[in-house]
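One thing: can you check what follows?
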Amino acid sequence: MRILAVAVTYNPEIALLAQVLGSASSQVQGLVVVDNGSANVEDIRRTATQAGGQTIENLENIGIAAAQNQGVARALANGFTHVLLLDQDTVFKPGTVMNMAHDLSSLDRDEGRTAAIGPAYFELNSQRQTRAYRADGVRLSRLSLANETRPVASDFIIASGSLIPLSVLKAVGGFKENLFIDLVDVEWCFRARAAGYRSYLSPMANVEHQLGSGTVQVGTREVAVHVPIRNYYWVRNALWLARQPYTPLAWKLYFVSRSLAFLATYPALADQRAARLKLILKGIRDSVAGRLGPING
């Protein structure tokens, strides 16, 4: 197993990026940072070099999916067998990649057709460990990993920290670039699921990850708050995913209901309320019209 870590950056905090790259570089066989037009690209280049990595420097923000595909292409061209996808704020603990690689090998041997495996990340804003998600008809179940020691199947895993065989990426296809950002990882996992592959979470692989800049309380749930533009992309892409034939029924219902919840809660409870309302409504219109890609593309 030869693993290339692919970290996508966009105006990152350099001190945190150095921690991210340093935590991953010793656990893989190669490292590449794909930058999406950051203003601090020289600092990113220096930080990547110090971690033993290389950079791919885009002149503008081409979106996370396109950047990840660039990293995958680099891995394929240089004889790697797997990619480890990273966000610019995901910090690995020692042994994390080894644990996931061991679990992935065991799954391939015992189950076969494994799409990807990801860590049981600890979300810093909500102070909670991620859960596995499974659709069964119209029902969507959320499964705790607290007492698990073996990999747990999940309909999707987040991209950051995920370990993916290049053979699966060649079979399923790369990440859907015109989604740009938000739900790119979910769409790929659903597409892999429809092709007969399963994604898993590794309870013994621990990672710290931050979703958004904070949370708002919606009923009994805490929902991550991102910058307003992310409300546009999430709603647009969610409603697009709800219409795809490979999206399970329970997830179709979830995406529609959650988009309506976004419309009701973010403009009322989060900051920049007028901007959020305008962007969510535009996301709904663009999704219905089938307009994807960057918002001003």
